[in-house]
Amino acid sequence: MLRLLSFALFLATWWIAALFVGGAKLPSPPAVLQVMIAEASTGALFLHLGATLARVALAFVLAMSLGSAIGYLMGRVKLADRLGDPWLILLLNLPALVVIVLAYIWAGLTEAAAIAAIAINKLPTAIVTLREGTRALDRSLDEMASVFAMPRWRAFRHVVLPQLAPYIAASARSGLSLVWKIVLVAELLGRPNGVGFEIGVAFQLFDTPRLLAYSLTFAAVVLVIETLLVQPFEARATRWRPRAA
Length: 245
Prior knowledge:
The protein is mainly alpha-helical.
C-alpha cells in the first residue's frame, strides 16, 4: 500500500513539475506513456530491453563466478591474498569508464568487449565481499568436519557454503545494482542496440519523451527483478541467521 502511495506521489509531482517546466524539457506522464506504447508496438522496446538484460545476465554470472572463486581463494590462502590485494585495490579504484574505453580499444566494438568490461567492473566488489566472508568462517566447524572425515566437497557444501551464503547474497545484490548502471554506459559508448544505445540516440536528438520512456521502462524492469528475484534470494540465504529483537 505504501509503495503504491509513493508511486502515486511520484506521478503527481512529475505531472505538476511538467506543467511548470514545459513539455519540451519535462514531458508529462501521458506523453511518455504514449512513446512507450509506440515503441512497444513496433517491438523496438522489447528488442533493446532484451539485449540489455542479456548483457547484464552474462556479465553478472561471469563476475560472480570468478569473483566468488578468487575471493574464497584469497580468504583461505595468505599468499594469494598478498599477491592479489594490490590488483584488487587497483580495480576497485579504476573508473568504470576507463575500463570500458580500454576494452573497446583493445578488443574492438564487440559484444565480448562490452560484457568483459561490465564484468571487470563488478569483479572486485565480489572478490572483496567473498574474501571477507571466507575470513569470517568458523574454524571450529572446519575442525568438526575434519574429525568426522567428511569429504572435501561434502564439507564445502554443508559446512562452508551455508556460512558464505549471506555474503554471496550481499555480493549479488550490490553487484547487480552496479551492473545495471555500467551496462548503460557500455551500450552508450559502443553497442548498436540496448537501452543505453537508445538513451544516447534520444540525447543526440533532444528527444526527452523517448529518453524517459526507455529509462523508466528499464527502471521498472530493475524494480521487478529486485522484488521478485533478488530480495527472496537474499531472504532465503540469510534465513538461518537469528533476527534482531
